[in-house]
Design a protein that fits this description.
Blueprint (H helix, E strand, L loop, with lengths): L1 H10 L8 H15 L11 H8 L3 H13 L3 E4 L3 E4 L6 H6 L12 H6 L7 H8 L23 H13 L15 H15 L8 E4 L2 H12 L5 E6 L3 H9 L3 E8 L2 E2 L3 H4 L5 E4 L13 H14 L2 E5 L24 E6 L11 E4 L5 H12 L4 H12 L2 H28 L5 E2 L6 E6 L5 H10 L5 E2 L11 E6 L5 H19 L3 H7 L1
Parallel strand pairs: 4-5, 4-7, 7-8, 8-9
Antiparallel strand pairs: 1-2, 3-10, 5-6, 9-10, 11-12, 12-14, 13-14
The protein binds pyridoxal-5'-phosphate.
Length: about 500
C-alpha cells in the first residue's frame, strides 16, 4: 500500500491546472489497466490515502466512486475496496484463428499488403481506382457549376422564413421518401422539363445521384450480378456499382450512344447504367432507335435501366431532349437526377423516379439504409422551385455557360486551329478536347494540374480499352475573363507534351 501511495504522490502535480480529482482518477485507472495494481488488490481506505497524498478525503471518495461505477474496482460494505479482474477473457480471444497468420519472418509491410490486411478487397479496389480530385473549383474543373452565381440571398430569405415558423416536423427524420411538397414540385418540374412520367409518390429524395444508384443497386441487384456501364463512363458511378459487388461489363458507345455487341446481348445484365441525354463524358445523345431497342431488350430480359440524367437542362443549340424514362412502357427505368449541377454541388439533394409498383419499397429502403433527414433544406428547395426561382436560375446559367463555352472554343481554335477536335460541346458543363493518338492524356492532365489548371484525362473514364485520347475541360465555373489566360497555360502544357514542334503548330493555328 505504501508503494501505491508513494507512486501516486510522485505522479500527482499539485501545481497543475488539472484538478487533483481528475489526475488521481486517471492515475489509478492507468495503474489498474497496466497491472501495476493487480486484480484482487485491496485499496487503502479513503482516509489513509487522502492523508498520504495530502488531498481532501472527499476527493479520494469521489475517485473511488467513479472507479467503482466504471468497473475498475469493487466496493463491499464493511470489507473495503478491491481491484476488479478486468483482464480480457483469454479463452474468448484465442478461440478464433487470426485472420492473417503472417509467417514468423513477415515484416510489417508484408502483412499490411496481404489481402486480409486492414482493407477489404473491394475497399482496396475502390481506393486504388478512386477518381475524386482534391480540388473541386477553378479553371477548367469539369462538371462544376458556377456557385458564385447562385442566388444566395433568395435562398437565405426562404430559409429564414421557414426557421421563423418553427415547424418542428421539419427537424425530425424524413421517412416516406422525403418532403412531400418537394416531391410534388419536382414531379411537376420533371414532367415539363424532362418529359418524365411520374407522380409525387414515385419520387424518392436522396443525397444525390451517387446515393440513388447505391440504393437502386442494393434493392434490385445481388452480389455477383452483372451491370452494363458505358465505355467510357463516369468513374463515380463505376465505383458505386463495383463496391456493391456487381461485375461490370463495359459496353462500347458510338455516335448514337450505347452500342452493345452480339456477345454483350447474349448475356443480359441485371442493371444497365446509361446517360442517354448526354453521354458522360463524350457528350453524344442516344438515338431514338437505340433507346427503343434498349427498352425492348430490358423488357424481354428483365433488365433494370438506371438513367443518369445529370445535366441535361444545359443544352446550347437546341431545346433539352426528352428522357428515356418518358418512353418506357414497361416500367424498367429508374430515373436519377440531382440539383448539384443546377444549383450547387454541396447542396447534396437528388431524386430518383421509380416505377409505381416499387415506390413503397424504395421509400422503406432509403429510410432503412441511410436514415435520411435534411427536411429543412428540402422545404427551402420546394419553395425555391414553386416560386419559380429554379427555372429562372437555370435559364440564366444556360446563357452564362453558353458564353463561356464559346469563349473556350474560340481559345482552342486560336491556339490549335482545327488540329484538336472539340467533342460533346452541345450540352452540359464541359467538353472533351481531343488529343492526338500518341498523346498521354494522364501525363498532360498531371502537368496541367502542376501548372494550376485542372482537366481530367479521358483515360480515367475507360474501364478496359481507351480508344481515344482527350481532356475533359469544364468551363461553367470559370469567369469569362479567366478563360483565355487559363487556356494559354493549358495550351502550353499540351504543346510541350503532345507536339514535337510547338512553334510550327501555333503558326498553323
Ligand atoms: C454523369 C454523372 N453522374 C452523377 C454525378 C454526381 O452526381 P451527385 O453529385 O448528385 O451525386 C456526376 C458528377 O460529376 C456525373 O458526372
Amino acid at each position: 500500500m505504501v508503494i501505491l501511495s508513494e507512486w501516486l504522490a510522485a505522479q500527482l502535480d499539485k501545481e497543475s491546472a488539472e484538478p487533483a480529482y481528475r489526475q488521481l482518477l486517471q492515475l489509478m485507472q492507468q495503474a489498474i489497466l497496466t497491472g501495476r495494481l493487480a486484480p484482487g488488490t485491496k485499496l487503502p481506505s479513503s482516509r489513509t490515502l487522502a492523508g498520504d497524498l495530502g488531498v481532501a478525503r472527499n476527493t479520494v471518495l469521489h475517485v473511488y466512486d467513479q472507479l467503482s461505477a466504471e468497473g475498475y474496482v469493487i466496493s463491499t460494505t464493511g470489507s473495503g475496496t478491491y481491484v476488479a479482474d478486468t483482464r480480457p477473457d483469454s479463452a474468448a480471444v484465442s478461440t478464433a484463428t487470426p485472420a492473417t497468420a503472417p509467417a514468423a519472418d513477415d515484416d510489417d509491410d508484408a502483412s499490411s499488403a496481404s489481402p486480409r490486411g486492414d482493407m477489404s478487397m473491394r475497399g482496396q479496389r475502390l481506393i486504388d481506382e478512386a477518381g475524386v480530385s482534391a480540388r473541386q473549383w477553378g479553371a477548367f474543373m469539369p462538371g462544376v457549376p458556377d456557385v458564385a452565381e447562385f442566388p444566395a440571398r433568395t435562398w437565405s430569405r426562404l430559409q429564414a422564413r421557414l426557421w421563423k415558423s418553427a415547424n418542428h416536423g421539419l427537424l425530425t427524420y424524413a421517412p416516406g421518401g422525403g418532403y412531400r411538397p418537394l416531391r410534388r414540385a419536382l414531379s411537376d418540374y420533371l414532367r415539363v422539363a424532362r418529359s418524365v412520367r411520374c407522380t409525387p409518390d414515385q419520387i424518392i429524395i436522396t443525397t444525390g445521384i451517387h446515393q440513388s444508384i447505391d440504393l437502386a443497386v442494393r434493392l434490385l441487384a445481388d452480389h455477383g450480378d452483372t451491370a452494363w456501364v458505358e465505355e467510357p463512363c463516369y468513374w463515380g458511378a463505376r465505383s458505386v456499382l463495383q463496391s456493391s459487388g456487381l461485375k461490370l461489363a463495359p459496353i462500347p458507345v458510338d455516335d448514337e450512344g450505347l452500342n452493345p455487341r452480339e456477345q454483350d446481348l447474349r448475356d443480359p445484365p441485371r442493371i444497365a447504367l446509361v446517360t442517354p441525354s448526354h453521354q458522360y463524358p463524350l457528350g453524344m445523345v442516344m438515338s431514338l432507335a437505340r433507346r427503343r431497342t434498349l427498352l425492348e431488350y430490358a423488357r424481354q430480359h428483365k433488365v433494370w435501366i438506371i438513367e443518369d440524367d445529370y445535366d441535361s437542362e444545359f443544352r446550347y443549340g437546341s431545346r433539352p431532349l426528352a428522357s428515356l424514362q418518358g418512353l418506357d412502357e414497361s416500367d424498367r427505368v429508374i430515373y436519377v437526377g440531382s440539383l448539384g449541377k443546377l444549383l450547387f454541388p454541396g447542396l447534396r439533394i437528388g431524386y430518383m423516379v421509380v416505377p409505381e409498383r416499387l415506390a413503397a419499397t424504395f421509400r422503406t429502403g432509403v429510410a432503412e439504409l441511410y436514415r435520411e433527414g435534411q427536411l429543412m433544406q428540402q422545404a427551402v428547395l420546394a419553395e425555391f422551385i414553386m416560386d419559380g426561382y429554379l427555372t429562372t436560375h437555370v435559364r440564366r446559367m444556360r446563357t452564362l455557360y453558353g458564353e463561356r463555352r464559346q469563349l473556350l472554343i474560340d481559345a482552342v481554335t486560336r491556339h490549335f486551329g482545327d488540329s484538336l477536335p472539340v467533342m460533346g460541346d452541345e450540352a452540359g458543363l464541359h467538353f472533351v478536347l481531343g488529343l492526338p493518338d500518341h498523346a498521354d492524356d494522364r501525363a498532360i492532365a498531371a502537368a496541367a494540374y502542376d501548372a494550376g489548371v485542372i482537366v481530367r484525362p479521358l483515360a480515367a473514364y475507360y474501364s478496359v480499352r481507351q480508344d481515344r485520347k482527350g481532356l475533359l475541360t469544364g468551363y461553367a465555373c470559370v469567369p469569362h475573363e479567366e478563360i483565355a489566360p487559363a487556356f494559354a497555360t493549358l495550351a502550353q502544357v499540351i504543346e510541350e507534351h503532345a507536339f514535337a514542334n510547338p512553334k510550327k503548330l501555333r503558326r498553323a493555328g
